[in-house]
Amino acid sequence: MSIIVKFFVAPDDTSASLTLRTGPGRAFESLSFGNFDPEEAVIEWECLLVGSSFEELAEAGEPRIVAGQDNDGCVVFAISARLSAALAEAGHARLRGVAASWAQLRAEDGEVIDTEVADAIVGDLAALVSSARRQNQGVYCWVA
To answer: 38 with 6: CB under 8 angstroms?
Structure first.
């Protein structure tokens, strides 16, 4: 379970990878959350929004790691272009539905995520993605 989850906007993988040791800090527009697995979450959100299967996305290497190791250390990964587009294009009602479905998926696995918290995470991430797209930049996640 992640302790710190920060989604942030960066111009490219190289810039995003520079955040590995200390996080995105104030240099990048970001959102901070905690206590959920963001790598699993982005796959689940993409499945819910786009209709892919979890297995297909995991086998395709999603989410794409740009820095760090996927073990007990910090990691930085990219939000896929497909998920970014789906989040940016989804309306408020669709995002609320995805958040509720995600909270239910997590509950089925024994992880409690309040529906209001899930709604805030998904909605805030969609707003961040929209901001990044206006700037022609990508969205990444730093996990510690």
So the answer is: no
pTM passes above 0.90 = yes
For 104, the token pair is 């239910």
For 30-71, the pLDDT digits (tens) are 999 988 999 999 999 999 999 889 899 988 889 999 999 756
The helix-helix angle for 81-89 and 38-50 (nearest 10°) equals 60
The answer to whether 67 touches 55, Cβ cutoff 8 Å, is no
Cis peptide leading into residue 63 (ω within 30°): yes
| Tokens found for residue 98 | 């995805």
**By the 8 A CB rule, do 4 and 34 touch?**
yes
Structure token digits, residue 5: 């989850």
pLDDT tens by residue, 1-12: 558 999 999 999
